[in-house]
Write a structure and sequence with these properties.
Elements lengths: L1 H14 L5 H14 L4 H12 L4 H14 L16 H11 L4 H12 L5 H11 L10 H11 L2 H17 L4 H36 L2 H9 L8 H31 L4 H7 L20 E7 L5 H13 L6 E7 L3 E3 L9 H11 L9 H11 L8 E6 L11 H10 L2 E6 L13 H4 L5 E4 L3 H14 L3 H4 L3
Parallel strand pairs: 1-2, 1-4, 4-5, 5-6
Antiparallel strand pairs: 2-3
Helix pairs in contact: 1-4, 1-10, 2-3, 4-10, 7-8, 8-10, 9-10, 12-14, 12-19, 14-19, 16-17
């Protein structure tokens, strides 16, 4: 029973319910005190300890029967027991008219036999039910199993069987009783399939690994994230940042140590008569300097928030970051991050620039950058824009963007919108894109992390990282 409760909790979490380890422990303590003999008391004990939000009640009520109702088989009736010898002979004669497969299914309906565990497991393999972990597919999987069992053909064969029995002389009232009873047995089989599909899907959800759930979340579009999923992604940024730091540090080490310093080697080995006894390698800092401008309007806020979290979590691999945020004007936000945790600093930035109705104006923000902060952009800088390029039909200031791109080492644009939407409506992306060294679609956290990785990799020259 303990294992069943653990599976139930895992399935609740997979559905989106927030169940902490402390709440799981409370559930076990409650059951230890109350016991499990009274099913309703058992259900209420789990419900009161595991569910803390009204929206999760639906998940609980939906999943509970699949884990704690046992193997309930719908009641079916054996119709052959009430037949006279003459009627049984007619039935046997009529069944011989059908194929072996249909004859087996009709006999199952006549004798009221539910599907055996072996038959259910075979259907599970045939339909791929064992590969699905989402209760929304329950009715679809049920229909797939019905097709595998040829329910439609069996129903047609059932009507044909009734006509044959009438032709062989069976009483019409008896034929109608058989028809209705066999249809009820077929409906009982359908209920068994539905229950089996729900139970298997619920178990699959509970067994799905944490890593798989994380991967699914990493690949979920930012614009479809729930508030809870956004919180989960914020927690995952630190793990992604650690991975990126390790990879970048290795590339920088190879770049520094892998390139021969010809002048330094000759100079050092003059004391050996020019014989290269001591080999010197170039030892220059390759850590990037980043100037990032983030659109934090309502539609872009999740992307920019995660981008800033990721960027400031890898600051040990960046020489300097100048961060700006804009909606209808530009704000220099780097001071907010000094001596503070990224999450705390970002919360302060979002408070300074609250979401709401604004006319997003990147052109004016570029003008402010050119006028007040031009010294932050130089030939060592990676100039990064995080935004959808939608400018509310304001002047995009391509002249300033072109000059900023020329001043920087590389110009990168992160945009959550697919390229097919660039240029539609008030989008100026098709005007900005040709002035960039690279553009990346960043609609998911996986895409965002990959784009940051490529941006940092691009800071190294081709010779530096070709072998890394």
């Amino acid at each position: 029973m303990d294992q069943r409760i653990v599976q139930f909790v895992a399935a609740l979490r997979a559905m989106g319910a927030r169940v902490s380890l402390a709440e799981s422990a409370d559930a076990f303590q409650a059951l230890q005190a109350l016991g499990i003999q009274d099913r309703e008391l058992f259900r209420l004990a789990l419900r009161s300890t595991l569910v803390k939000e009204s929206r999760d009640l639906e998940f609980f009520d939906q999943l509970f029967p699949y884990f704690f109702s046992g193997e309930q088989v719908p009641e079916m009736q054996n119709l052959t027991q009430d037949l006279t010898p003459e009627e049984a002979k007619m039935l046997a004669e009529a069944l011989r008219q059908f194929t072996q497969r249909l004859r087996q299914m009709l006999n199952k309906l006549l004798q009221g036999q539910p599907l055996s565990p072996q038959e259910l497991n075979q259907l599970e393999q045939i339909t791929g039910l064992d590969q699905v972990a989402d209760l929304r597919y329950q009715h679809w999987m049920e229909r797939q199993m019905e097709r595998a069992m040829r329910f439609k053909e069996v129903r047609q064969a059932l009507h044909a069987l009734m006509e044959l029995l009438e032709q062989l002389g069976m009483n019409r009232q008896k034929v109608e009783q058989l028809r209705q009873a066999m249809l009820q047995n077929q409906e009982a089989l359908r209920q068994q399939l539905n229950q089996f599909a729900g139970q298997r899907l619920a178990e699959n959800m509970s067994e799905r690994s944490k890593g798989e759930r994380r991967d699914n979340l990493y690949n979920k579009s930012f614009d479809s994230l729930t508030e809870e999923e956004m919180h989960q992604l914020k927690r995952e940024v630190r793990r992604l940042a650690a991975m990126l730091r390790t990879r970048l540090a290795l590339r920088l080490k190879r770049a520094r140590n892998g390139k021969l310093d010809v002048k330094g080697t000759l100079r050092t080995n003059l004391k050996y008569g020019g014989v290269p006894v001591e080999i010197k390698h170039l030892d220059r800092s390759l850590k990037p300097k980043i100037v990032v401008i983030c659109d934090i309007s309502t539609s872009m806020r999740p992307v920019s928030e995660l981008m800033l979290s990721l960027l400031y979590a890898i600051q040990d691999q960046v020489s300097k970051t100048h961060a700006f945020a804009f909606i209808d004007h530009l704000e220099y936000i780097t001071p907010e991050f000094e001596g503070r945790q990224p999450g705390e600093a970002i919360a302060e930035v979002l408070h300074r620039l609250p979401s709401g109705y604004y006319n997003t104006d990147l052109g004016f923000s570029l003008q402010m950058l050119w006028r007040d902060y031009l010294d932050t952009v130089d030939h060592r800088s990676t100039f990064l824009i995080v935004g959808d390029g939608r400018n509310n039909y304001n002047d995009p200031r391509l002249d300033l963007f072109r000059q900023l791109a020329r001043r920087s080492r590389q110009t990168i644009w992160f945009n959550p919108e697919p390229p097919i939407l660039w240029g539609s409506g008030d989008s100026d992306m098709l005007l900005y894109a040709p002035l960039c060294d690279a553009t990346f679609q960043v609609a998911t956290l996986n895409q965002l992390a990959a784009a940051v990785d490529r941006m940092l990799l691009g800071n190294l020259s081709a010779d530096d990282w070709a072998d890394s």
